[in-house]
Amino acid sequence: MFFSNVIGQEYIQEQLVQAVQQNRLSHAMILLAPEGAGGLPLGLAFAQYLVCEDKQEKDACGKCPSCIKAKQYIHPDIHFSYPVIPRKPGDKPISTDYAAEWREFIGTHPYGNAYDWLQFIGAENKQGNITANECHDIIRKLSLKSFESQYKILLMWMPEYLGNEGNRLLKLIEEPPDNTLFILVAENQEQILATILSRTHLVKINPLPKDVLVNALVERAKAEPAKARQVATIAMGNYREAMYLLQNAEADYHELLRNWLNGIFTGNRAALQEWIEQIASTKMGRENQKQFLRYFINLLEHSLRMQFIDKQLLAFSEEEMDFAAKLNKLINLRQMEQIMELLDNACYYIERNANAKLLFHALSIRMQYIFRNKPLPVV
């Protein structure tokens, strides 16, 4: 993978390239990235850059024998480690047992999370782990001389799955053989062993900015700009989540919200009942219902921000900005807080299979009370 294939994160890319060019490379680092921000693609691109025989100013050449192998994830000096499951009871699996599946997964789902990977290999309800056997195999592989490259590289994805077995790697991480590099790609710092964390250089990666995420959805996923903006608003910098929403959301959330609020403000019971039937339909689905509520919550948050910061800094469409400005004229801060609490609770109930018609009917009534600034009815 090339750095040019990574969505955004140019600053981190530049840091990694300069570390190599200026010979300031840490022998053990953690790329700490929230889900969907590109931690794994960055790790893959960095590994390819390290073994490239003709490094360019900002990226690997892509033409040398090492790059060709690295692009296919078969370079003999780039070793991978990741959570796995036993194929049958009594098995003691290691990562290389799933090498073919791993190459297919990162080739098609580089922004996937651990759940995606475990389902990809048929884990169902089984718990994935990076086992003691895996640690022994890592020690064995890294004790060998490199085959082709200047470096021997271990790219470990999700070190959170190591558990206490990770302590077996401490001596190797602390005193590695010459030109041996550890690249650990993680999502949750708190779940990484403190002993490993203290021995590695931590590189923190931010969620993708909304404008970067919108551009990626339009250019890579061929999404309509309006739909890309709606999805990016909900996904909050998570490309994986944005792609899932894009593939599973057919509704226009903005139009849906406009119709709902029109029914509430005008007191048009027939229109409101028709809207409830629409959103509670099986075609809409629970996931879409939840994402619609999250979209409304995000719009309220942006309405609040508009009161204190330059609206040019908000990556909203002109239509959404106008809508948010109207909300600011209709409701105050206390009312916004009450609505967001209602919407958040509604998401919780949807996840627990609440009856959608009853839920949105009750939500509509309580919203009417809030907009009229009346005390909420006791349920």
Automatic annotation (TrEMBL):
For biological process, the GO terms are: DNA-templated DNA replication
On the tree of life, the source organism's domain of life is Bacteria
What InterPro entries has UniProt attached to this entry? Answer: DNA_Rep/Repair_Clamp_Loader (IPR050238), P-loop_NTPase (IPR027417)
Q: Which residues form a coiled coil?
A: none
Q: Which SUPFAM superfamilies match?
A: P-loop containing nucleoside triphosphate hydrolases
- Name of the protein in its database record: DNA polymerase-3 subunit delta
Species the sequence originates in? Chitinophaga agrisoli
The top of its lineage is:
Bacteria, Pseudomonadati, Bacteroidota, Chitinophagia, Chitinophagales
